[in-house]
Design a protein that fits this description.
single chain, 22% strand
């Protein structure tokens, strides 16, 4: 004969969870989910900032290369904050760059500083800022003219032979 299992608790024993235990478990679960959501949000913000910094770095390098290429013919000039397109065509964040030109600590050198900012569309502080500084020989020193004079003198010497 098979005996059936009965669920008659003995006095002093209980079957199941009490309401207090269920509330405590739900509170722990809610707290853990809240902490996980905060960690995920922090990670998302950090990834967004890293993306903006990478974009700003690319823009700064590009603008500095343009300035250095044009500095052969003329002395670089300071540029006030100017809007610019991001390097990523899918980015919707506005960027602006600024160029500062100052004498370097060494005579005959200029310090070019290109600063790029990712602008917060809500009007807050910039989302990301990246600056790139490069020293260059001051084109106003007349080194190009000196080289041209040396070339002319060399050609005259060769022609006189």
């Amino acid at each position: 004969m098979i005996r059936g299992i009965t669920h008659n608790p003995m006095p002093g024993q209980r079957s199941g969870f009490s309401l207090l235990e269920m509330l405590l478990a739900l509170a722990l679960l809610g707290g853990a989910l809240g902490i996980l959501a905060e960690v995920a949000m922090t990670g998302t913000d950090a990834a967004r900032e890293a993306e903006h910094l990478a974009q700003a770095r690319l823009i700064a390098q590009s603008r500095l290369a343009e300035i250095l290429a044009n500095s052969q013919a003329q002395s670089p000039a300071a540029i006030p904050p100017t809007p610019t397109e991001p390097m990523d065509s899918q980015s919707t964040t506005p960027f602006e760059y600024q160029v500062d030109v100052a004498p370097a600590p060494i005579d005959g050198m200029l310090a070019l500083r290109v600063t790029v900012q990712a602008i917060d569309e809500s009007g807050g502080p910039p989302v990301a800022t990246y600056s790139l500084t490069r020293w260059m020989i001051d084109p106003m020193l007349g080194l190009a003219e000196l080289e041209a004079e040396e070339e002319a003198a060399k050609e005259e010497a060769e022609a006189g032979l």
